[in-house]
Design a protein that fits this description.
The chain contains 13 helices and 21 strands. The strands form seven sheets. It has a six-stranded mixed sheet, with helices on both faces. The chain has a three-stranded antiparallel sheet with strand order 9-12-13. By secondary structure, the chain is an alpha+beta fold. It folds into two domains: 8-155, Creatine Amidinohydrolase, Chain A, domain 1 (3-Layer(aba) Sandwich), CATH 3.40.350; 159-426, Creatine Amidinohydrolase, CATH 3.90.230.
Length: 430
């Protein structure tokens, strides 16, 4: 609110229920920006912020309680409880926005809103503004400027509070337990979806009903597909399985990837690639500290990977030229990091004035280097023993005042540690 001029107003629609098929809707998940500002989890909601308004600056529109409707869909917060529970100044019935909101808009010079996210609501808002403009001759003062809210709001979301960090730690802890459980139950003959089911079971058991994104469980060459989610192939003893999965706990996401051998031991070729990706992961995390820039972990990871690829004979050429070459991009097609928070690919600028922004305490990001070698890759320097191997190792990292905290450290990632864990499980020692 303090970042808004007194002559402005912010209008933030809540999320909408989405139809899955016919009369079935998906489980409702609140809009991330709306949840960040309100903590309110019900559909049919609108938040209006009016700085300097003497009658109240924070106004919520939401659904009223209805005993008959609640018999079918469950209890709602309602108007009376919304004010003390959410800390807003007023709560009005959602259908009343047509009557109330035009009056709040009138006399305000600027409207902060993210146009384009909810087109139906955008149309209603523009119609209200048009109504005010029709009365200009009579002294009405319509807003004259629309300003994107996302820059101000997303900059706030980029820096996590102590409470948010604790929630992210919990999300990472739950996800770590799920990854460990998947390693423990993994054996040849299962299907990828069996490991996905284990992940989901642990998520729900620990209080996270939903994954933060569709879980990726890719064995063998499926690990070379970045967003593989079919999860239907049978696990083979000689293959690796890549699991990229994270729970959503109280709206905050974890995002962790581990790659481990279905049969419990890495082959020599698998170990070559795995250890290289692991070193890239470690080197990238070492570049996470205040004052260093966002792309530094990626640069560190790629320097490590390219040196390793040269040593293994997977690429050929001059080191510096290879760092940004098409040949390397075939094997390493994605960046090393993204912001993490309420959204798994969280908001916040990566550049400021065209330059990579510096890390500051309270930022949370992923570190996820990977090497993927499809069997049919056309790159010339690919020994047969490495074809079909895909490895990614991903951790969640908090920038602290003096460095970084790895929120996902509970999941083993050293190859020996993973083999030991799987061996103990196989022999009944756990």
């Amino acid at each position: 609110m303090a970042m808004m001029p007194d002559d402005s107003i912010a209008v933030i629609p809540g999320g909408q229920a989405q139809r899955r098929n016919r009369d079935i809707v998906f489980p409702f998940r609140q809009d991330s920006d709306f949840f960040y500002l309100t903590g309110f989890e019900e559909p049919q909601a609108l938040l209006v912020l009016v700085p300097g308004r003497s009658q109240g600056e924070e106004i919520l529109f939401c659904a009223e309680r209805d005993e008959r409707a609640e018999q079918w869909d469950g209890e709602l917060m309602g108007l009376e409880r919304a004010v003390p529970a959410l800390g807003v100044d007023y709560a009005f019935p959602f259908p009343d926005i047509d009557d109330i909101l035009p009056g709040l808009l009138e006399g305000r010079e600027r409207i902060f809103i993210n146009l384009g996210e909810y087109p139906d609501f955008d149309g209603r808002l523009l119609a209200w503004v048009a109504q005010i403009r029709k009365r200009e001759a009579g002294g009405a003062q319509p807003p004259g400027e629309f300003i994107a809210l996302r820059h101000l709001l997303h900059e706030l979301r980029l820096f996590k509070s102590a409470s948010e960090i604790n929630t992210l730690r919990k999300a990472a802890d739950i996800t770590a337990a799920a990854h460990i459980a998947a390693m423990q139950v993994c054996r040849p003959g299962l299907e990828e979806r069996d490991l996905e089911a284990e992940l989901q079971y642990v998520f729900m058991r620990e209080g996270a009903r939903f994954p933060a994104y569709p879980s990726i469980v890719g064995s063998g060459e499926n690990a070379c597909v970045m967003h593989y989610t079919r999860n239907g192939a049978k696990l083979k003893k000689q293959d690796l399985v890549l699991i990229d999965a994270g729970c959503e706990y109280q709206y905050y996401a974890a995002d962790i990837t581990r790659t481990f051998p279905v049969g419990g031991r890495y082959s020599a070729a698998q170990r070559d690639i795995y250890d290289l990706v692991l070193q890239a992961n470690v080197d990238a995390i070492a570049a996470c500290y205040p004052g260093n820039h966002f792309n530094a972990p990626h640069e560190a990871a790629m320097r490590t990977i390219v040196r390793g690829l040269l040593d293994l004979g997977l690429v050929a050429g001059e080191f510096e030229a290879l760092l940004d070459s098409a040949e390397v991009r075939v094997l390493c097609p994605h960046k090393t990091s993204h912001w993490l928070g309420i959204d798994v690919h969280d908001v916040g600028d990566y550049r400021i004035d065209g330059c990579w922004r510096d890390f500051e305490p309270g930022m949370v990001l992923t570190i996820e280097p990977g090497i993927y070698i499809p069997r049919n890759a056309s790159t010339a320097h690919l020994p047969e023993k490495y074809r079909g191997i895909g490895v990614r190792i991903e951790d969640d990292v908090l920038i602290t005042a003096d460095g970084a905290e790895v929120l996902s450290a509970a999941v083993p990632k050293d190859a020996d540690a993973i083999e030991t864990l799987m061996a103990q499980t196989a022999t009944g020692l756990l």
